[in-house]
UniProtKB/TrEMBL annotation:
It comes from Planctobacterium marinum. It comes from the Bacteria. The gene is truD. GO terms for biological process: tRNA pseudouridine synthesis. The lineage of its organism: Bacteria, Pseudomonadati, Pseudomonadota, Gammaproteobacteria, Alteromonadales. Residues 158-309 form the TRUD domain. InterPro entries: PsdUridine_synth_cat_dom_sf (IPR020103), PsdUridine_synth_TruD (IPR001656), PsdUridine_synth_TruD_CS (IPR020119), PsdUridine_synth_TruD_insert (IPR011760), TruD_catalytic (IPR042214), TruD_insert_sf (IPR043165), TruD_pseudoU_synthase (IPR050170). This is tRNA pseudouridine synthase D.
Length: 346
């Protein structure tokens, strides 16, 4: 059985925090607002609903929408999954062929509040969002003297762009996150019948390996650019290899036009060269079963930014509470920001 050495050992950019607090004491302490990169045009066959949901996960709400409107689940779209134990506002689309913007009955379900409703010509697809806005209240705060200094560092120098614990699932009786336990089935060439669970297992496996790559990079090379590094272009999934770090690269990096990256594993080898290449290729030597499984699943070598920079960052301290406001790009985790600030109470 392939061991996973947990998810808690990954390197901190600013050292392990000394402060502690409780996250999600109640759902209202974790609020997320999803922002689309476009406005619904007001006509078409896809009903767009902006839903504020409390205590419900995204997949479950999508199922209820399918039942309510009498369509198949695949005809319901959403850009990304949001936390269950939270108050989250996100957009769903429901394909109602032949309706074409006619009035329809409004979706009703306990825990859901319809904020807006419109029509559009296309379905919402995974990743089809601009950013997420977070308002997070941390309670039972045990504040160390370095907390505000850490906040300033996070605001200006970012945090490791780790996939958060939500990606890996709850810890089971064996001490392994649930989605990684499912991933063991993939590694052993066993079948996961349900498509959604299979996708979650694949995603968790690849995400875990990415986090390992980020932690290794921060531990051994820090965030200083090296000859042979692979840089991601801001605002896109494109990347390029810099065989030599020159003044142009440094200027673009300082201006956030490009970003250091780490591998999302797939078939072949990472594009990196030199010392970064040696470090990244060592993953295949350390975790051959994982790398081979991801390649066999048909995934390609891709890149993800090494660091995450929260935008519109602000905070307030009130006795034993810390209130955080910030926004993050699609696919990034608020828990990775919080991890650099303080330790969470069990």
């Amino acid at each position: 059985m392939l061991p996973f050495p947990g998810t808690e050992h990954w390197h901190y950019l600013h050292g392990k925090p000394k402060s502690s607090a409780t996250l999600k004491a109640i759902p209202e302490h974790f609020k997320v607002n999803e922002v689309l990169p476009f406005e619904p045009v007001g006509e078409g066959e896809h009903l767009f609903l902006q839903i504020e949901k409390t205590g419900l996960n995204t997949g479950f709400v999508a199922q209820q929408l399918a039942r309510f409107y009498g369509v198949k689940e695949r005809d319901v779209g959403y850009a990304g999954r949001k936390d269950k134990h939270a108050v989250t506002t996100q957009w769903f689309s429901v394909w109602l062929p032949g309706v074409k913007s006619a009035p329809v009955k409004q979706f009703v379900y306990d825990g859901c509040n319809i904020k807006q409703q419109s029509w559009h010509s296309k379905k919402i697809r995974t990743g089809n969002l601009s950013h997420n806005e977070f308002q997070i209240t941390l309670t039972d705060l045990e504040k160390d003297t370095d907390l505000e200094e850490r906040i300033a560092k996070v605001k200006h120098t970012g945090v490791p762009n780790y996939f958060g614990p939500q990606r890996f699932g709850n810890i089971n009786s064996d001490g392994v996150a649930g989605n990684l336990a499912m991933a063991r089935l993939l590694i052993n060439n066993e079948t996961i019948k349900k498509r959604e669970k299979r996708n979650m297992a694949v995603s968790a496996l690849r995400s875990w390996l990415f986090n390992e790559a980020v932690s290794e990079r921060l531990t051994k090379l820090s965030t200083t650019p090296e000859n042979g590094d692979v840089f991601s272009l801001a605002g896109s999934n494109s990347f390029f290899v810099a065989e030599t770090i020159d003044s142009e690269i440094l200027t673009r990096l300082a201006g956030a036009d490009i970003h250091l990256s780490a591998p999302l594993w797939g078939a072949g080898k990472p594009a990196s060269l030199g010392v970064p290449g040696e470090l990244e290729n060592s993953l295949a030597e350390r975790f051959p079963e994982i790398c081979n499984t991801l390649a066999a699943l048909g995934l390609k070598q891709e890149r993800r930014k090494l660091l995450l920079y929260p935008k519109d960052f602000s905070y307030q301290l009130h006795e034993q509470q810390l209130l955080l406001n910030f926004s993050l790009p699609s696919g990034c985790f608020a828990t990775s920001v919080i991890r650099e600030l303080l330790c969470l109470n069990p």
